[in-house]
Amino acid sequence: MKIKLTSVFVDDQDRALGFYTGILGFVKKQDLPVGRFKWLTVVSPEEPDSAELLLEPSDNPAAKAFKQAIFEQGIPIAAFAVDDIQEEYARLKKLGVEFTMEPTNMGTAIVAVLNDTCGNLIQIYQVTPA
Length: 130
Known about the structure:
Elements: E1 5-10, H1 13-23, E2 27-34, E3 37-43, E4 52-57, H2 61-72, E5 78-81, H3 85-94, E6 99-105, E7 109-115, E8 121-127
Parallel strand pairs: 1-4, 5-8
Antiparallel strand pairs: 2-3, 3-4, 6-7, 7-8
């Protein structure tokens, strides 16, 4: 069994694509029309044939309620690994990304939490040596 696709609910697929590619640095993999929305995925440029992240419309009332509740509780909906969290934090801050948590050492990892501008909190993390 392998993870090949996971998703985040987004308010606006085009805005999400701009943020996830232009700010976070992912690359667009699939962009297929599906009714009034799209099957829109991004991947890591470091692993283009690995797991895809589906930028899924949060048009469904259940998705909206879930997303809002998770956001209000300050819970990140996804976590992305980085090699150097201080460098990535500085790069993203320079691009105007809003962080709800600055890089914080949690023992086994250093984590930070950012707002993806599409209704989600995203965690970035760097594993620390044991």
